[in-house]
Each structure stands twice: as structure tokens, then as C-alpha cells.
Specification:
mainly alpha, Rhomboid-like fold
Length: about 240
């Protein structure tokens, strides 16, 4: 299931969402061009990887803590980038509408941090969980983590709470169908749990998605609903 657009117009211009889209695209484009010796050189791309990718072991040892933020704006491949940017484009504007421009940026960063810490915890406690439940969750604290998907998962969680009935035009095989957000995003969240528990990783940090999604739900319930109601009142006036 691939969301293409939502039928839920925002009442404000999503300036911050557009900035986030642009920053993510520009950073990956520069990285990709340098890694292919088209712009600058591969040494520049390697320096980016060494300095800005988040490695769980470093965070646990109190090193390079800034990578908790920088890794949110890095991607591994064009497919990785475009998939994340599609979800950000479809769902981000309405969440910015509810939280306001500055609040949305704080929401995005907080969700990304929650996702990163959830991923680290899943790696740290994987051996214990595996022993207790007979699972085979991967535990590798030395592998780098990049991507905006943790922060974007927060957006999905908040969207499900704030706009559960909004219709999302979704590509399912060869058909485009309008699906209520609560159904589409509920299925998406359930799949993250299934993939994470059964370690269908493929290099994807599924527990980061889960952590970001839950953070988004909590922020929507505690802050987002108030902002949404206040904006709706101003619109009616």
C-alpha cells in the first residue's frame, strides 16, 4: 500500500514541511554526487558518513551525540529518500497545521529522537528478549543508522490521532483507493511490529518506526489536539 495524497487540505501554508523536504533532498543529493565523484569527491562522502551517521554504540558511550539529529537528515539510497519524502509530503502539512510552524519543527525533532532511542534500546535488550521469547531480533550496536523515517513515523502517529477519518488516496496493486487514515496507518503500524518482532529487517530499523509513531501519538494527544481545536476556532471566526 503506497499513499499518494490525502484529501485533507491544510488551512495554512506548510512552510516548515517544505523546508524539511528541501533540506533532506539537498543533503542526499550532495552526498550522492560526491560519492559518485560528480561533485567534490568520494572522500567528502566518506567524511559525511564518518561524522554524521548515528552509531548506537557511540551514543551509549556519550560520544557524537549530535548525530542523533544529523542522522535524521541523511539517507542511504534514492529509494530510501524518495519513500520517506513521499510520506512526509502526504502527511506533514496537516500536522504542521495543528502544531504551528515552530511547534512542528520541535515535534519532528522530538519524534526523531524518540525513534533513535527506541532503536538503541531494541538493540541493547535484544539478547534478553530473544532469550525470553525465543525470537531472533538482531542486536548490532555498531551499525550506523540514517534516515528521516523515525521522525516521519511520528507524523503518521499524530495524523492517525488528529485526522482518523481523513481519506488517503492509496495505490494498492493497480488500483487507487481512498482509505481512512486510521485504517491505513493502523495497518502500517501493525506491520512495523510484525517486521520488527520476526526480524524481517532488510536493513530497516523497524523499532525506530514504532518509537517515533508512539511519540507522535502522545504528542498529538497532549499538544496537537489543543492546537488543532484552537486553529479551527480561529478559522470559524
Amino acid at each position: 500500500m503506497l499513499p499518494l495524497k490525502d484529501l485533507n487540505r491544510s488551512s495554512t501554508t506548510p512552510h516548515m514541511n517544505r523546508i524539511l523536504l528541501a533540506v533532506n533532498i539537498i543533503i542526499f543529493t550532495v552526498y550522492w554526487l560526491s560519492s559518485n565523484n560528480i561533485l567534490l569527491d568520494t572522500k567528502f562522502a566518506i567524511d559525511i558518513e564518518n561524522k554524521f551517521v548515528m552509531i548506537p554504540q557511540d551514543i551509549l558511550q556519550g560520544r557524537m551525540l549530535y548525530t542523533l539529529f544529523t542522522s535524521m537528515f541523511m539517507h542511504a539510497t534514492w529509494y530510501h529518500l524518495l519513500g520517506n519524502m513521499l510520506f512526509l509530503y502526504v502527511f506533514g502539512d496537516n500536522i504542521e497545521d495543528a502544531f504551528g510552524h515552530a511547534g512542528y519543527l520541535m515535534f519532528y525533532l522530538f519524534s526523531g529522537l524518540a525513534a533513535a532511542f527506541t532503536h538503541i534500546a531494541s538493540m541493547l535488550f535484544a539478547p534478553t528478549v530473544n532469550g525470553m521469547f525465543g525470537l531472533a531480533i538482531t542486536s548490532d550496536l555498531t551499525s550506523g543508522v540514517v534516515g528521516a523515517s523515525g521522525a516521519i513515523s511520528g507524523i503518521l502517529g499524530a495524523y492517525m490521532v488528529l485526522y482518523p477519518k481523513a481519506k488517503i488516496v492509496t495505490l494498492i496493486f493497480y488500483f487507487m483507493l481512498p482509505i481512512p487514515a486510521i485504517i491505513l496507518l493502523g495497518i502500517w503500524f501493525a506491520l512495523q511490529w510484525m517486521y520488527g518482532i520476526f526480524d524481517v529487517s532488510g536493513g530497516v530499523a523497524y523499532f525506530a518506526h514504532i518509537g517515533g509513531f508512539v511519540a507522535g501519538i502522545i504528542l498529538a494527544l497532549t499538544v496537537g489536539r489543543k492546537g488543532k481545536k484552537a486553529r479551527e476556532k480561529r478559522t470559524k471566526l
